[in-house]
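User: I'm putting together notes for a lab meeting next week and I want to include a structural view of one of the chains we've been expressing. I don't have a solved structure, so I'd like a prediction I can at least talk through. The sequence is below, exactly as it appears in our construct file.
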Amino acid sequence: MMSQILVIGSGAREHAVAWKLSQSPKSDKIIVAPGNGGCHGEKIASDSSVPIKDFTKLSEWCTNNDISFVFVGPEQPLADGLADVLTSNGVRVFGPSKAAAEIEASKAFAKDFMKRHGIPTAKYEVFTDAEAACQHIMSAPYPAYVIKASGLAAGKGVSVCSSKDQACKAARDTLSGAHGDAGNTLVIEELLEGIEISVLAFTDGTSYSVMPLSQDHKRAYDGDAGPNTGGMGAYAPCPLVDVSQLSHIAENVIGKAVNGMRADGKPYKGVLYAGIMVTPSDGYRVLEYNCRFGDPETQVLLPLLQSDLVTICDACIDGKLSECSVAYDMGRTAVGVVVASGGYPGSITKGHTITGIKEVQAKGHLVFQAGTSKDPSGNLVTSGGRVLTVVVLSSDIGESCRVATTEAGVIEFKGAFHRRDVGKKAVDHTHTGKQGLLYSDSGVSIESADQLVRAIKPLAAATQRPGYTAAIGGFGGLFDMKAVGYRDPLLVAGTDGVGTKLKIALEAGFHDTIGQDLVVCASTTSSLWGPNPYSSLITTPAPDWM
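Assistant: Thanks for the context. Below is the predicted structure for the 546-residue chain, given as structure tokens.
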């Protein structure tokens, strides 16, 4: 039977969910409320008139519009009890109850839950008084440098500090209202070092199905620098965890949580998200649980999902996930790069015209929109911090990362920025142990270079002067000065300090033109002496896109 499905939310996560649901032959129409500038298509429509803030009216609306089920994207409605109200009014919903959503809504609850059920996590203490919190920071037998607002803070309530003084300031700021009511209670955690990854799973309250591991990039800038954000990019599958650990993580991170919630009388249905840290000495530790799909993890996981998402959601709602086959395309890697507004995660300006989306999509790549809307003239403009996510899939993780970064640069609007190192850890890990770096790994094609040489050889030959004995394509040559009338030539050479240019390139993380800059610099220095040039030696490595 065909169905109408309501997706609640307005981010790239909800856009990706609607996109995947629309691929099912079981879906007739996907309504996204309130949606964004990109949630539209043959089966997808945004509708800001749906009364998503009034849960009773929403229940009536769902009944009147024959909604098959409601897919709740963000955490706040779940924490406020939306699933409970919908269920009590006979509306099927994909997402946990208010009691189950507390696993994200209260970090203090989540830490106590993990401790009670033997789920490995970082050392911690809970506080409501700033002075007591600072005393703990100063005297704790571990680096108590991670300061978390216990409540929901839109992904921005965590401060990872580097000193006791910095941690104390973060604790005082949080308890003084920096994150509103979310910071009335504070969790102080041990600072863990290692690899942070995301583990997501579908669950019907009893059975669970773990998705491919993924890795988020929370800091705003390259090299994991800058403030924490809602996420600046992600990729999946993540190869940083040994395959032998996967079943152990699934059992002890997801399995114990699902079983523990059911044992506590809070059966959990929907998507359960666990952020974990894989440490070099103490194994893995759970950093947090979320009560919904992650953003931007959703944007790279759903393109890999080969099974019908509507069927999976129905199975979770009806307690029949064990009867459902859930499969993924593990032969490809999906990389998503978030393009954000200038100033994010701080203050931003809105209303800037967005270009480049159609060009990226025309190449077969995906663009999931978030902070976008239409202006009175129908132009797509920015309306939020994280504007959209560009997703690229290929069989090679290095290729996915390179193309996703390039295509993110095709999207333009005033102040746009994105990270250029999403997936770098995976690429570095994949190359570890190889017998050297291949030309192709650096984006260079030997075949293309040979084609270029063959194409320009006749042109180069036309410029050859007497005395030169080599042809283009080699790596050197001889020049007979006597052949052009020189008796006692004075040769001119130029050198220049290139250290400053290299330092700037390294600091900026931008090496695209450094080779050209160095050649031009040396050539210019030489030309100032007024010499008569007699030959030129140029190496032309061709990029693999030529």
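A couple of points you could mention at the meeting. The first strand starts at residue 3 and ends at 9. The chain has 17 helices and 22 strands.

User: Perfect, that's what I needed.
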